[in-house]
Amino acid sequence: GKWKYQYAIEPGLKNKPTIQPAGGEINIEELMKINPDVVFTMERGQVETLEKNDIPVIYLSWTDAEDVKGLMRVLGGIFDEQERAERYVRYFDEATARPGKVVASLPDDQRPKVLFCNYNSMSAGLKISDWWIEKAGGIAVAKNKRVAESMTFDLEQLLAWDPDVIILFNPEQTAPVRNDTRLSGVSAIKNGNVYAAPMGAHYWCQRTSETPLMVLWTAKTIYPEQFKDLDMEAEVIAFYKEFYNCDITRDQAAEILSGTA
Question: The domain at 105-258 falls in which architecture?
């Protein structure tokens, strides 16, 4: 099922209590039973609640894509894994710079216009999606319309953008988008350039430690010729081994890349 690679990375999670359901409130009573040495949260409002209950808390601020480098250094210090944290930062910088070096000379009018979206909610994803599209060498069509972290759009706007490539939140949306007759004139549909974002430990399209992989995958997806020698399965296998201490097979890497994990 969904999130299974979190269990592959840390099998012990299966037997742990749920402290906070997705989109729900934190269960303070359950948390206090565990008596944690420290709690990490990305929700500012939880800090006060936890401090009131004398629970040590560290707030992790993650708005921009590159914030993850600072967070890794914080975690590296806490868990005495400073060298691994620095290796991650170096990999992040190297991997996310790789596509730009390959397509640096391409003018904007030769770069594909890319839309990342959740078609069910007609939303263009979080702001980070504009970042990884641009890092991969594409033009993020939603960027100039975005005034907040997330944004919605209508059919007319999608048609006006006329993206060359559409990347969807999950693979369940690919067939409905390809078969939506209202979109038949959109370049991405006409040329068969509709894809689903990968899903591993987390959704790669959102804020995740796997963000460097998302940049590389996007580059290979929108520039198949320029990145034909980029072996994404090997890249995923090496990343999982190096940073998650988790051995996965080529079949598992392919599953992650397909978004069906």
Answer: 3-Layer(aba) Sandwich (3.40)
